[in-house]
Amino acid sequence: MTETASGSVARGGKRPRKGLKMKRIFTKPGVHPYDEIAWERRDVVMTNWRDGSINFEQRGVEFPESWSVNAANIVTTKYFRGAVGTPQREWSLKQLVDRVVGVYTRTAIEHGYFAGDEDAEIFDHELKYALVHQIFAFNSPVWFNVGTKSPQQVSACFILSVDDQMESILEWYKEEGVIFKGGSGSGVNLSRIRSSKELLSSGGTASGPVSFMRGADASAGTIKSGGATRRAAKMVVLDVDHPDIEEFIETKAREEDKVRALRDAGFDMDLGGKDIVSVQYQNANNSVRVSDEFMRAVEKGGEFGLRARLTGEVIETVDARELFRKMAKAAWECADPGVQYDDTINDWHTTPETGRITASNPCSEYVHLDNSSCNLASINLLKFLKDDNSFDVANFVKLTELIITAMDVSITFADFPTEKIGETTRAYRQLGIGYANLGALLMATGHAYDSDGGRAVAGAITSLMTGTSYRRSAELAGAVGPYDGYARNAEPHKRVMRKHAAANDDLRTIGSMDAKIHAEASRQWSECLKLGEKNGYRNAQASLLAPTGTIGLMMDCDTTGIEPDLALVKFKKLVGGGSMQIVNQTIPRALKQLGYPQEQIEAIVEYIAEHSHVVDAPGLRQEHYEVFDCAMGERAIAPMGHVRMMAATQPFLSGAISKTVNLPESATIDDIEQVYLEGWKLGLKALAVYRDNCKVGQPLSAGTGAKKDEAKDTADVVPAEPEVKVIEVNRPTRRRMPNQRPSTTTRFTVGGAKGYMTASSYPDDGLGEVFLKMSKQGSTLAGVMDAFSVAISIGLQYGVPLETYMSKFVNMRFEPAGMTDDPDIRMATSVMDYIFRRLALDHLPYDERAALGIFSAAERAAQQRGEDPAALQETVDREALAQSAPIEAKPEDAQSEDRTGGAEAQAGRAAEVAKPSAMTLESHQRFTADAPLCMTCGTKMRPAGSCYVCEGCGSTSGCS
């Protein structure tokens, strides 16, 4: 617990307030936290995914020995400030942490947060210790901006507002642009804008919010292309009773149809492709704000009224179930829209006297007032798991106090993109403490993610975190005053505190671990209510669960946010270059906790390394399989398992949860309806879904079927006097290949599968024959490939243009797929996709390939430099560019990793299995086929909450 004492610092002539009396958590008096750490120098070299050239290089950077190569690379490339190669460039983690923590400490002293100088030193040392030991991390804007000459923006999440006026709409465009430029995301509710079914004062018809979404989407796309820190992230919300709700629901699904049609026609529709800009509404997540009234109408099968924006009168009545079905169908087709449960959100609102909550940030975890912002910080839960597998409750409480204090200080010195956002944030001081590594913690302690025990642990930890945060907020209110808007919202704020405390009382514990955590949470809530009654609260909001994309990698977390493990194996970058695929280190710990002897643990780990799952692992009891269930793979967690985990933690959060409920490709529209309905019943605030491959595996439009039916009807009608016409058809003639012809043989690897392609040309140029070999003679695959080769070759000799085959086979998706060893074609969605891209590069002129979006590595590099690829002469050294060729781990690399990895490397030696880089990436690629490529480094991203994160460079598509 933290005490308060009388302070001597007065601000602005006001009476002196009590300052905080700090206590040490991890540090020792008279010893600087850096002095107890073993530091080492490393070289960070990042290569360009397009052509293998070096796009970042900084040698001699300094990090603790315990930090992984990946974490050090991400911090060096993303967070170190100053031009590379200049004396101003940061080169040590110490400099980065000192830059940030120094501002926090100085500001806290200036504004009377501490009782004395010793308390300020403790605050400074404890923050530095926690950050360099990866116990918690601030969100990315803190690392980008604090302590630099840039504006001190500390918030990652923003909510805007827009009214039914053209000036307000144009101001919305401008404000979003400023936020995107700074690398953050924003959300907005457009429900105040009149629908396209209502009249303007001039007598004309209004455009409607969907039309204005088009302009905002184009603006976001332009700023993203301009090279912001990360891709523009935004959320657009529309109330379910808006007259344009159906158009809003179907907007992105229609655009996905356009993407598929244009891609099949040969246009470059890949992420970042030159033709993707013609597709609209792709820069935002869409969510429908549903009310309890609407959801009850869905349950009963009743009607629901759509209301005019200005008068509030019902102008149209719809079938609630039919509208709900359209929402689920659109989400089934393209993952949008998500849902936000309006009445639940506002029932837990601490400041309703100021205004309703109408929107959220892009990832849906921050829900509060319009024109406000929230800075985030996340705790690494695995750092609190003791050797005896008990949870370090006492230190978790102390660290939470420390983080809340620091986060509140940041609002005092922060800059904001607009004055309105600054005013609201300073008046209500919204914070967003959360955590990462929950999935790893549960597995390590032998708890299945989708189990009563797992949910009890998660609920208890979340309750303890929020109870401690608000208790600390009440202490801060006693030391430096409550938030400015507290007086008018005191009663509703205290009502919400009682709701949290009541939910904590209702929490049912299962085992000793969660029982101890819950007991401390109960004490924290009791103290919170007492102090809040006396002092009020310093912060209108305290907690939420963010995706923790980049900062999760910075802390070397196995899992992000509230997510379970993605898979049982992961990548480990080596100091000397390359990577290894290793079994997650939480697995041996979980097996030990479950009572397995060391010999059996080693056998099970070896089996997992080979098969990537636990089914039929030697000696592993079936009742323990569920402990190792992951988000994807052989034993994927059921969709409702994700929903139930969200429901277990939601009552203990001020905000909401960034999480996408993943469904298999076989999921139906009914399944999505059920998820949305259960989310409402279980008290969630927001929910998003994603069906595997939904963005490429949507059903064909009804147009084709309609034409078939029309043709059938016509055929049934027999003309009275049929007219017989004789039509002469010019039959194609086969141009056979000569006995001697030039040919090229290409050896290739796609997703670890090797093959050979021999392409023969006519002497006067022009491809005429292709033969493929991928298996032993006599096998089924060899026979199929021979038959395919003959069919393609005969077609070429009969005059079928090569570009026709390109349009049919490029982007075809099936296994094997993934990384290749071809520097010109780094990723392929199938063997056929690779083969015909290679043929296009070898046999088609630049102009024809460009129309199909197929470029060589040298041509892509020229585009990056702003040169004309058409004028480029191909003089590429393929061996020098073959950065994607499989790299076996060198013995000296492994030894070096053991030397630098410390206890982690020694403990995981039995779990490490060296595999080629291509195979390593492929093992995850099969589970994230629809994830976008990173705009920075080109690596396939992986899910992190409702967003995506790149494990290669740390870039995210949303909050971090």
UniProtKB/TrEMBL annotation:
Residues 155-690 form the Ribonucleotide reductase large subunit C-terminal domain. GO terms for molecular function: cobalamin binding; cobalt ion binding; nucleotide binding; ribonucleoside-diphosphate reductase activity, thioredoxin disulfide as acceptor. Residues 44-134 form the Ribonucleotide reductase class II vitamin B12-dependent N-terminal domain. GO terms for biological process: DNA biosynthetic process. It catalyses: a 2'-deoxyribonucleoside 5'-diphosphate + [thioredoxin]-disulfide + H2O = a ribonucleoside 5'-diphosphate + [thioredoxin]-dithiol. Residues 738-841 form the TSCPD domain. Residues 882-913 are annotated as: Disordered. The keyword Nucleotide-binding applies. Pfam families: Ribonuc_red_2_N (PF08471), Ribonuc_red_lgC (PF02867), TSCPD (PF12637). Its EC number is 1.17.4.1. Residues 902-913 have a biased composition (Low complexity). Keywords: Cobalamin, Cobalt, Disulfide bond, DNA synthesis, Nucleotide-binding, Oxidoreductase. It comes from the Bacteria. Residues 889-901 have a biased composition (Basic and acidic residues). Its cofactor is adenosylcob(III)alamin. CDD domains: RNR_II_dimer. The keyword Cell inner membrane does not apply. Belongs to the ribonucleoside diphosphate reductase class-2 family. Catalyzes the reduction of ribonucleotides to deoxyribonucleotides. May function to provide a pool of deoxyribonucleotide precursors for DNA repair during oxygen limitation and/or for immediate growth after restoration of oxygen. This is Vitamin B12-dependent ribonucleotide reductase. It comes from Nonomuraea montanisoli.
